[in-house]
Amino acid sequence: MIYFYGYLALINLTALVLCAKDKYAAIRGRWRVPERTLLLFCAFGGAWGMGLGMILFRHKIRHRKFTVSVPLLCLLWLAATIYLATGVIK
């Protein structure tokens, strides 16, 4: 279980950093992180980091794709974490 929590911490931190990097690049007119990459990080467990990044940096808040999928993925990962933490799978 400790590896699972470590994985979630790392991928959420990475998603948050990617969100910050993309916002910085958007302001400066530089190369951007593809939306597909951001959404893949959300799908693989970084939804909470991306959600925090969206709030902190006001990034991707006008894109329906993100305002719908990120909260749904947050709920999905929360449910998965609770399911695993309750000891259903040993």
TrEMBL record:
A Pfam cross-reference name: DUF1294
Annotated TM spans: 38-57, 69-89
InterPro entries, A to Z: Cold_shock_CspA, DUF1294
UniProt keyword Transmembrane present: yes
Keyword set includes Membrane: yes
Domain of life: Bacteria
Identification of the protein by name: DUF1294 domain-containing protein
Protein species of origin: Gehongia tenuis
